[in-house]
Specification:
CATH topology: Rossmann fold
CATH superfamily: Vaccinia Virus protein VP39
Structural class: alpha/beta
Helix content: 40-55%
Order of helices and strands: HHHHEHEHEEHEHHEE
Strand order of the largest sheet: 3-2-1-4-5-7-6
Radius of gyration: 17 Å
CATH architecture: 3-Layer(aba) Sandwich
Mean pLDDT: 96
Number of helices: 9
Strand content: 15-25%
Shape: globular
Number of strands: 7
Low-confidence stretches: none
Distance between the termini: 35 Å
Bound molecules: S-adenosylmethionine
Largest sheet: 7 strands, mixed
């Protein structure tokens, strides 16, 4: 495994090599890569499995934020095919693929921005998100996590699997590069782009706690996603 110094060195080299690569709008990014998306994500196999296993056994109704083609849902339904799912995603093409794979399941798909979509109140046993929220700033997450909190029933679970920055330097570096690229390309503040700006574990769980959650468990898998189990 790489040391933090080696990891940062490689990241800086990659950022320098891709300095002239333009940012892509979020949904367009996934539409262009849909043909090999699932194969590309197969390196996360172990994390998807752990994520599915981390969902409480009594979960009946769940909301998936940024569900894409449903790689996490494939594993969750393998465990319990009766779970009712509402999947929210910006990208219609990703949702169509999810529907194709799981036409036999209790599934509602919503093609909308999860910052805008009304999650309701006391509505879900679990709200989950895998590898979607690392594209957003802390202030955007604060609003979203409060909305997640109120939408869960008492004792409900927010299960988050995501890319976590290894240190403050990585978090700040990626955020600065993203901001600079946005400014250079004149991208409007309300336009979502595909560029990773993960937070450190301390900052990510800090926002969850501030939103009212109790952090029950963190499964920190350095070669995959970090999985955070937070309880209302
Ligand atoms: C890396 S994919 C992960 C998809 C799926 N969870 C998985 O692990 O295969 C990120 C997904 O988040 C969606 N997404 C990003 N920002 C979003 C937003 N603001 N509202 C809804 N979906 C969003 C993207 O369209 C994309 O499908």
């Amino acid at each position: 495994m790489k040391s933090t110094a080696e990891y940062l060195q490689d990241l800086k080299k990659w950022l320098a090599d891709t300095a002239d690569t333009p940012l892509e709008e979020m949904a367009d990014f996934f539409i262009r890569r849909l043909h090999d998306y699932e194969e590309h994500m197969s390196v996360w196999e172990q994390s998807y499995q752990i994520f599915a296993e981390s969902l409480p056994a009594d979960c009946r109704k769940l909301l998936d934020l940024g569900c894409g083609t449903g790689l996490e849902l494939d594993r969750i339904w393998r465990k319990d095919p009766q779970i009712e799912v509402t999947g929210v995603d910006l990208c219609r093409d990703m949702l169509d693929k999810l529907q194709e794979k799981h036409s036999d399941k209790k599934l509602v798909t919503v093609c909308e921005d999860y910052f805008q979509f009304d999650f309701g109140r006391d509505a879900w046993d679990a709200v989950i998100s895998f590898e979607s929220l690392h594209h957003f700033l802390p202030e955007q997450k604060e609003m979203l996590y409060q909305k997640v909190y109120h939408s869960l029933r008492d004792g409900g679970v927010f299960l988050l699997g995501d890319y976590i920055a290894c240190c403050d330097e990585e978090e700040e570096l990626l955020r600065d590069v993203c901001l600079k690229k946005r400014q250079e390309q004149g991208i409007a503040a309300d336009c979502f782009v595909h560029f990773d700006i993960p937070l450190t574990l301390e900052h990510e769980t800090g926002i969850m706690k501030k939103s009212g959650f109790h952090i029950e468990k963190v499964l920190d898998n350095p070669d995959g996603a970090t999985i955070m189990i937070a309880r209302k």
